[in-house]
Amino acid sequence: MTILLSLKDLTLYYRTRRGVVKAVDGVSFDIKEGSCLSLVGESGCGKSSMAYAIMRLLPRNTHTYRGVLLFDGRNLMDLSESDLRREFWLKRMAMVFQGAMNSLNPVLTIGEQLSEAFTIHAGLDKLEAQKRAAELLELVRLPRSLLNKYPHELSGGMKQRVVIAIALSLRPQLLILDEPTSALDVITQANIINLLKKLQEELNLTYIFITHDLSLSSELSDYIAVMYAGKVVELGDIRSILTDPKHPYTQKLLAATPRLLEDAKLEFIPGSPPDLASPPPGCRFHPRCPYVMDVCKNKVPNPVKVSSNHYVSCLLWERA
Ligand code: SF4
Q: Is 189 part of any domain?
């Protein structure tokens, strides 16, 4: 598989009243074409900011934004906003935002909302755009009859399918999904995940799947990147992360995940994630880590390769 997206030292800081918030701090990894990488971690660890940084959708209070973002060999950092709009957004990369199903326009029909991408971005006439909108509904396994419905007439699962259809309208290669199932019941969640699997196969899509739910990520992912306090602390293929986690934070996350058939006691992670306006020095996990050493309070761990597809940023492994 070829590398579709390569991040090098990606950094995104925000200016806030509390000071500069280091939401994404020097993150590097590659994503192979046709694969799914899950970004997992607690709320506020920088997962969504990472998605915005990759899409180059930056808020007005951006303080620092730097790094290299190679998409199919082109550095997105070198492109102007109009270049991104013309060549990349929706056409090569798209995002399903958190809670997006609630942002469908209540006064426009589903057909009108699906057609917009074709009329505005692809310059199609209204009739052709409606035809393509109907095809999009079929792509996400919804009946064409929904074209004339309004969002309030649809269930949560149907609305989420419409949002996915809009994101896929111009056939992007990369789709970033920010908690796409968090507001849905478990049956609808399973249906959406199955749909995403089928779409990935049919369209050779590459996914970045953002979730705080490790068990859900295991359904869709080839790789998992575990984020803590703006940094990726562990990255590896799904099997090695789930069966042989190396980072103390990943181990704690897994121990805190309920299992249906095991009688294991659920653990919790003591303390809370740090304020990213003043993260702890050294390893950012050190105030909560059961294995903390003196050196962890000053030295920032670097990623260490522990097996062919598995990297961990922890001084225990750096020393080993
Ligand atoms: Fe724990 Fe130290 Fe490893 Fe951080 S570097 S996870 S504090 S052992």
A: yes
